[in-house]
C-alpha cells in the first residue's frame, strides 16, 4: 500500500512540474462578419467580388457596383462622382499592386495614376478585364480578346477552344482556364499547359500551379504541367468552385461552404455561424489575411481578430453582466425572432444552478487570483440566488431548481409550485445535476471566498441544510408531493439497481460521499462522517467509486417506468468532474485522497480525446494530471459567437470516422469548436450534426471557469 501511495505522489509531482507556464500571448481567432446588404440588392445577381489594396471590398452586381462601408454595410459605390451614374461591365484587381480597374461598355480605366490609365474600346464588345503587373490589359468576351498596354492597343488574340471558366495572371503571364484545359498566353498565342477533366479553378505558389476540380485538387509544374502532388479529394467538399492562396494558407470555396487547409486538418466554414448562405460563389482577401466570401445573397467575412485569452475573458464577463443575469443566476436568453439578440428574454431553465456554477466558480477563482473586489461582489450576488433556492419553498432543506415571479415562468409549467412568499413560484423535481452544483459552489466558496467567521458559517449552513434533507429523507430529494424526485436519489436500493459496470452506480456513490465529506468538514458534525463511512463500508459505496472506467459498458436499465438509456450520457462527465474538486479537497484522510486521485486520473484518461479545458483544469487542481496544449487549444478556439446554429458535418469527406463505441466518439480527430454546434460541457463534442436556428445563445461562462482556474493554478501566466 505504501509503495502504491509513493508512486501516486511521484506521478502527481511530475505532472505539476513537467510543463512550463504558458504566456498569454496575442493570437488570431476567426470570427464572422455578415454584411448588411443594401435593400435594393434583394433578388439582385451578385456577380463578382474583389478587394483592393486599400482593403475595400467591391461587389459587382446586375444593379451596379457596390462596396463595403465601415466593415458593416454593402451599399452603392458613389465614391467617385464621375462614375456614380455608370455601371461597370466588369472589375478586376491588378496583379500584385491591388489597384482597381473598371471595364465599362465603351472604355476601361482606373482612378489610380491620377486617372491617366484609360482607353476607349468598341462598345459592347468585351465583358471581362484582366490586368497584369506590367500594365498589360487583356479584354475578352466569348468571341474575342484584345491585348492593350496601358492605353495602347497591342493586338487581337484568338481564343482557345472550350468554355472559359476564368482568366488569371501570375508573374505577368495570362492563364486561360476551361473545364478541360489550361492555357498560357505566349506572345499572341495561347499554348496548352495542362489537360484534365472537371477543372474549376487554379492558384499559384512559386513554380507550382494548384488545380481545383469537381473532385478535389492536385498540383502541377508551371513549366511543363508535370504532376507534383497527386489528387487530394478527402476534403470537406471535394467539388471545388475556387481555390486560392492567402499568404501561406490554401483556401477553397464550394457550393456548400468554404474551408482552408491546416497542418493536420481542414477547417470548415459553413452554416449561418459563418455565412448567410452556404453557396460560395467568389473569394477574396485583404492585407490582414481576412477572407471575404460572396454568396448569391450576401457578403461575408472571416475576420481574424487578434486578442489574448484575457481579452476574451473580459468580453464574456461584460456580455454576461449586460445580457445574461436573472436574480443572480446566469441564464441563456430565448429569442423571439431567430438571430435577433434584441428580442431576447432571459428565462428560467431546468438547471439554473448548474449553469450558474460555471460563472460563480470563475469569479471565485478570479478573486483568488487577483483579489479584485468586484469579483467578490459578483460571487456573493450569485450565492444569494443559491441560498434562496432553499428559502423560496416551504420544504426543509430541499433546494428548488429555480424560482420566478408568479405568472412569468417559461419552462416546464407542470413542475412549478406556489411559494409562501407572495408573488413568487418555485420549480421542483430537483436533480443530481443541480446537487453537484451545490457541492462545487460550497467547496470553492469555503476555500477562497468566505473570509470571515460569518461568511464561513453562511456557506456551511447552505450545504448542511441540503445534506440533512438527504439524510432525513432516506437519501432522496423529496419534493412537495412527498415523493422522491426522479433524478435526486442516492439510496442504496436505487444506486444498486444499476450493475457495477453501469456508470450511474459509480457516479451516485461519488456524489453522496462527496456531499457528506464536505458537510462534515464545514460543520464538524459527526453525523455526516458517520453516515459517509456507513455508506462506504456497509453499502459498498467506496468500492463503487473505485470501479475502473474501463469496466463501464452499456446496458438498458428501466426504473420507475423510465428508460435510463444505453449510451454514454455526457452530463455524467460534467457531474463527475465538478464533483471531483470537493471529493479530493475535502477527503476525510490522505489515504482516501490518494484513492480519489486515482479515480480522477482514471476518468481523465478516458476524456483526453475531447480536449476539454474544464476537465483538464479541474483534474490538475486535484490529482495533478493535465494536457496543457489541449487547455490552450480549447480556450483559444472557443467561439466568441455563442449563438445557436444548425450545423452539419456528416457529409464531409475529410474526416476519419471510427467504429461505433460506447462513448459515441464518431471521428478520430475532434473538430474545432468553430465547426461544432454550440453546446455546453455536458454535450458530446464529437456530434457531427445538430443545433438550431438562432433561438438562443450561451453566455460564455463555460469559457470563464477554465480560464480563471488556469490563471489561479498558474497554467497561464
Structure keywords:
four-stranded antiparallel beta sheet, alpha+beta, 717 residues, 40 strands, five-stranded mixed beta sheet, disordered N terminus
What does this structure look like?
By secondary structure, the chain is α+β, with helices and mostly antiparallel strands. The protein contains 15 helices and 40 strands. The strands form twelve sheets. The protein has a five-stranded mixed sheet with strand order 2-6-5-4-3, with no helix packed on it. A four-stranded antiparallel sheet has the order 1-29-28-27. Helix 2 (309-323) crosses helix 15 (701-712), helix 5 (432-449) runs parallel beside helix 11 and helix 6 packs across helix 8. The longest helix has 21 residues, at 503-523. The protein is elongated and about 100 Å long. 44% of the residues are buried.
* Total beta strands: 40
Q: Determine the fraction of residues in helical runs and give it as a percent range.
A: 25-40%
Q: Give the low-pLDDT segments.
A: 1-17
The geometry reads as elongated
Strand content: 25-35%
Reading side by side through the largest sheet, how are the strands ordered? Answer: 2-6-5-4-3
- Summarize model confidence as the mean pLDDT: 95
Task: Note the gap between the termini.
Answer: 38 Å
For the CA atoms, what is the radius of gyration? 31 Å
Number of helices: 15
Structural class: alpha+beta
- Profile the largest sheet: 5 strands, mixed
Amino acid at each position: 500500500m505504501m509503495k502504491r501511495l509513493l508512486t501516486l505522489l511521484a506521478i502527481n509531482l511530475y505532472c505539476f512540474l513537467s510543463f512550463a507556464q504558458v504566456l498569454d500571448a496575442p493570437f488570431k481567432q476567426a470570427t464572422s462578419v455578415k454584411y448588411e446588404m443594401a435593400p435594393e440588392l434583394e433578388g439582385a445577381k451578385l456577380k463578382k467580388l474583389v478587394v483592393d489594396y486599400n482593403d475595400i471590398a467591391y461587389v459587382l452586381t446586375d444593379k451596379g457596383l457596390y462596396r463595403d462601408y465601415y466593415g458593416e454595410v454593402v451599399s452603392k459605390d458613389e465614391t467617385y462622382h464621375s462614375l456614380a451614374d455608370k455601371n461597370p461591365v466588369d472589375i478586376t484587381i491588378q496583379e500584385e499592386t491591388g489597384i482597381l480597374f473598371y471595364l465599362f461598355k465603351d472604355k476601361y480605366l482606373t482612378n489610380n495614376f491620377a486617372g491617366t490609365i484609360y482607353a476607349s474600346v468598341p462598345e459592347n464588345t468585351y465583358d471581362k478585364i484582366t490586368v497584369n503587373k506590367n500594365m498589360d490589359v487583356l479584354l475578352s468576351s466569348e468571341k474575342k480578346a484584345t491585348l492593350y498596354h496601358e492605353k495602347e492597343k497591342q493586338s487581337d488574340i484568338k481564343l482557345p477552344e472550350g468554355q472559359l471558366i476564368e482568366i488569371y495572371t501570375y508573374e505577368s503571364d495570362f492563364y486561360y482556364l476551361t473545364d478541360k484545359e489550361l492555357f498560357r498566353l505566349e506572345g499572341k498565342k495561347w499554348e496548352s499547359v495542362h489537360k484534365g477533366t472537371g477543372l474549376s479553378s487554379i492558384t499559384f505558389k512559386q513554380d507550382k500551379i494548384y488545380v481545383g476540380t469537381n473532385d478535389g485538387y492536385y498540383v502541377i509544374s508551371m513549366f511543363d504541367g508535370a504532376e507534383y502532388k497527386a489528387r487530394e479529394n478527402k476534403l470537406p467538399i471535394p467539388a471545388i468552385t475556387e481555390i486560392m492562396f492567402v499568404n501561406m494558407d490554401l483556401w477553397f470555396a464550394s457550393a456548400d461552404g468554404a474551408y482552408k487547409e491546416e497542418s493536420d486538418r481542414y477547417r470548415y466554414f459553413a452554416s449561418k455561424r459563418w455565412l448567410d448562405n452556404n453557396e460560395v460563389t467568389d473569394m477574396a482577401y485583404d492585407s490582414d489575411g481576412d477572407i471575404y466570401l460572396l454568396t448569391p445573397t450576401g457578403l461575408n467575412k472571416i475576420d481574424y481578430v487578434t486578442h489574448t485569452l484575457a481579452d476574451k475573458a473580459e468580453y464574456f464577463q461584460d456580455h454576461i453582466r449586460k445580457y445574461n443575469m436573472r436574480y443572480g443566476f446566469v441564464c441563456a436568453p430565448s429569442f423571439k425572432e431567430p438571430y435577433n439578440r434584441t428580442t431576447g428574454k432571459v428565462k428560467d431553465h431546468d438547471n439554473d444552478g448548474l449553469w450558474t456554477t460555471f460563472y460563480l466558480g470563475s469569479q471565485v477563482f478570479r478573486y483568488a487570483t487577483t483579489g479584485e473586489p468586484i469579483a467578490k461582489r459578483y460571487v456573493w450576488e450569485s450565492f444569494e440566488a443559491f441560498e434562496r433556492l432553499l428559502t423560496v419553498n416551504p420544504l426543509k432543506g430541499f433546494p428548488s431548481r429555480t424560482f420566478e415571479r408568479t405568472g412569468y415562468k417559461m419552462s416546464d409549467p407542470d413542475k412549478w409550485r406556489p411559494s409562501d412568499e407572495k408573488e413568487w413560484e418555485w420549480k421542483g423535481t430537483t436533480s443530481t445535476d443541480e446537487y453537484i452544483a451545490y457541492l462545487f459552489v460550497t467547496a470553492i466558496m469555503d476555500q477562497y471566498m468566505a473570509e470571515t467567521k460569518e461568511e464561513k458559517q453562511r456557506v456551511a449552513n447552505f450545504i448542511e441544510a441540503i445534506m440533512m434533507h438527504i439524510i432525513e429523507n432516506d437519501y432522496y430529494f423529496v419534493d412537495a408531493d412527498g415523493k422522491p424526485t426522479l433524478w435526486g436519489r442516492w439510496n442504496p436500493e436505487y444506486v444498486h439497481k444499476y450493475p457495477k459496470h453501469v456508470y450511474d452506480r459509480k457516479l451516485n456513490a461519488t456524489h453522496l460521499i462527496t456531499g457528506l465529506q464536505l458537510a462534515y468538514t464545514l460543520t464538524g458534525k459527526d453525523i455526516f462522517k458517520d453516515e459517509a463511512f456507513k455508506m462506504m463500508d456497509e453499502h459498498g459505496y467506496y468500492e463503487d467509486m473505485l470501479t475502473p472506467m474501463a469496466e463501464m459498458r452499456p446496458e438498458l436499465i428501466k426504473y420507475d417506468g423510465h428508460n435510463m438509456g444505453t449510451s454514454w450520457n455526457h452530463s455524467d462527465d460534467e457531474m463527475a468532474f465538478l464533483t471531483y474538486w470537493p471529493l479530493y479537497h475535502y477527503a476525510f484522510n490522505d489515504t482516501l485522497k490518494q484513492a480519489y486521485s486515482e479515480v480522477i486520473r482514471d476518468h481523465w484518461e478516458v476524456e483526453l480525446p475531447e480536449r476539454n479545458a474544464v476537465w483538464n483544469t479541474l483534474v490538475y487542481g486535484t490529482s495533478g494530471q493535465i494536457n496543457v496544449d489541449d487547455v490552450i487549444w480549447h480556450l483559444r478556439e472557443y467561439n466568441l459567437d455563442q449563438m445557436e446554429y444548425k450545423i452539419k458535418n456528416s457529409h464531409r469527406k475529410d474526416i476519419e470516422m471510427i467504429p461505433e463505441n460506447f462513448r459515441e466518439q464518431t471521428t478520430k480527430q475532434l473538430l474545432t469548436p468553430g465547426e461544432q454546434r454550440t453546446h455546453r460541457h455536458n454535450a458530446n463534442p464529437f456530434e457531427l450534426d445538430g443545433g438550431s436556428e438562432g433561438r438562443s445563445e450561451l453566455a460564455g461562462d463555460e469559457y470563464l471557469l477554465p480560464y480563471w482556474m488556469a490563471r489561479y493554478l498558474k497554467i497561464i501566466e
